[in-house]
Amino acid sequence: PLVLGIETSCDETGVGIVRGHTLLADAVASSVEEHARFGGVVPEVASRAHLEAMVPTLERACETAGITLSDVDAVAVTSGPGLAGALLVGVAAAKALALGLEKPLYGVNHLAAHVAVDQLEHGALPDPCLAMLVSGGHSSLLRVDDVTSSVTPLGATIDDAAGEAFDKVARLLGLPFPGGPHIDRAARSGSSVAIDFPRGLSSRRDLERHRFDFSFSGLKTAVARWVQAREAAGEPVPVADVAASFQEAVCDVLTRKAVDAAVSAGIEDILVGGGVAANSRLRVLTEERAARHGIRVRVPRPGLCTDNGAMVAALGSEMVARGRTPSSLDLPADSSLPVTEVLAG
Ligand code: ATP
Ligand code: MG
Ligand code: FE
After folding, report:
1. What pLDDT does residue 321 have?
2. Name one GO molecular function term (predicted).
3. Which residues pair with 123 in a beta bridge?
4. pLDDT lower than 70: segments of the chain
5. Residue 242, class by beta-carbon neighbours within 10 Å (0-12 exposed, 13-18 middle, 19+ buried)?
6. Ligand index nearest the alpha carbon of residue 35
7. What are the CA-CA distances from residue 114 to residues 5, 139, 300, 311 (Å)?
8. Candidates 78, 83, 108, 135: which one to mutate for ligand 1, based on the most atoms within 8 Å of Cβ?
């Protein structure tokens, strides 16, 4: 079946088209430039941009896939979590399509879609797998027994998300928004052991209560203090070294805990998803540490890690394949949809 997926949870308007695990089109329009000068996504600006981009992006996806809308067998859409006003645009568009085409509608969870997208690159997901979901708004370790129906959180950040930490530290270093890719690039010419930044929730005492949880706000504060001390002393800030050392602190904790979670649950596959999964150091370090325990790692290519419509279509396609009951046309946009709710009403 041909499945069309719509994504509008944040600042990317995405329309993806898949057939089974085959990606036919992945059209993305981003309003990121419009938010850059504010240093973060402005919800009202994002909603308006989605409204303007929806139809052109839909047309571009159909053109790339070489299909017409009447070929579509099912429509999937991100129903949450995300920015309420932004989600509404996608949900309204998806309902209109499903109603007009008389095809089933699947309101899916954005976070589960970040996991499901890997099927487009590496085929069917291994069941179970341990998903390290690291994005702009979330950072969790999930046990995924079935990406259409059974996602169990094992741990999560207790404060900032990993992507948020990248963005905040980039800002401290005077790098553009969103900062993740810029830190990644700057870090390549720096030393990851130049500065010993803290590893959150890694002390023996913290591990007792927060074995699979993360904390990145203390790290961000430590970087801020370090940079301010340099500036106060009138010394130049070694941006590459700070970027590399900060990135190492984030990747160290993420990979250590993900591998620990997989080993302790007897899971042999780790899947990394979400925007931060595009990070080059995270990809290498996860591989390296997992390999020591005979654990396989799957990470989608960077372009599929950040928000897009293909990931929504991929999860929708799996809903169809597994015979899940479609959502009703009353499907709400739910800004705080929990990750355990993979398919929304
Ligand atoms: P969520 O999925 O939690 O709703 P989101 O959709 O806004 O949040 P994504 O698009 O999944 O987030 O990811 C965006 C985040 O990924 C940003 O914080 C960005 O800085 C980060 N990111 C993108 N590329 C990289 C990279 N190479 N290294 C580190 N971080 C990166
Ligand atoms: Mg974005
Ligand atoms: Fe996302």
Report:
1. 98
2. tRNA N(6)-L-threonylcarbamoyladenine synthase activity
3. none
4. none
5. buried
6. 2
7. 13, 12, 9, 6
8. 135
pLDDT of 263: 98
- Given ligand 1 and candidates 10, 87, 276, which is best to mutate, with the most ligand atoms within 8 Å of its CB? 276
Tokens describing residue 263: 């080993």
Q: In this structure, which amino acid lies at residue 260?
A: D
CA dist., res. 6 & res. 25, Å (int)? 12
Could you identify the atom of ligand 1 that is nearest to the CA of residue 274? 11
Q: Quick one: which of 336, 340, 317, 324 has its CA closest to 79?
A: 336
Å from CA of 132 to ligand 2 middle: 18
165, 250 Cβ separation under 8 angstroms: yes
Q: What angle, 0 to 180 degrees and rounded to 10, lies between the N-to-C axes of helices 217-232 and 239-265? A: 160
SS3 label, residue 38: coil
Supply the pLDDT for residue 50: 98
pLDDT of 36 reads 86
Rg of the chain on CA atoms, in Å: 20
CA–CA distance from 170 to each of 99, 110, 238, 274 (Å)?
44, 25, 13, 18
Q: What sign does the CA torsion over 132, 136, 139, 143 have?
A: negative
Give the integer Cα–Cα distance in Å for 312 and 45: 23
For the question of an ipTM over 0.90, the answer is yes
Q: Which residues line ligand 1 (CB under 6 A)?
A: 9-10, 82, 110, 114, 135-138, 163, 166-167, 178-181, 184, 274-276, 278-279, 306-307
Ligand 2: centre distance to CA 191 (Å): 28
Amino acid 345: pLDDT: 87
Amino acid identity at 67: I
Q: How far is CA 11 from the centre of its chain?
A: 13
Maximum alpha-carbon separation in the chain:
67
